[in-house]
Amino acid sequence: MSTGSPEEEYFARLDREKKAAMAAQLDAEAQVKNREAQRALHKGHCGRCGGKLVPQSFRGVEIDVCEDCSSVLLDPGELEALAGKDESGVVASLASMFSFGKKK
Ligand SMILES: [Zn+2]
Fold first, then answer.
1. In angstroms, what is the span from residue 56 Cα to ligand 1's centroid?
2. In what order do the strands lie in the sheet with 72-73?
3. Are 69 and 46 in contact (CB under 8 A)?
4. Least confident range of 53-57, 58-62, 74-78, 93-97
5. Is 0.85 surpassed by the pTM of this model?
6. From the CA of 100, how far away is ligand 1's center (Å)?
């Protein structure tokens, strides 16, 4: 709905499009900032309970253990490193179950 001239309508439409593009950009920037804030908040904390992760040596591999719930966080390659020292094969079978990002 408009009562303006075609020229006024044209500039009004340009203005609306410009504002929509600016709003979309601000929204994208807010999402990036929010993601960064979330990462900072969770870094060094247990993904299960939010407790503090404490480095601990297990079979010569440095793993992160939650001081509250005892969950273990393995960095990339640590599960494979443990599997290499695993005589029973249990860790090796876990490693093959959870070999994320290594799909053939
Ligand atoms: Zn925990």
1. 14
2. 53-58, 61-66, 72-73
3. yes
4. 93-97
5. no
6. 22
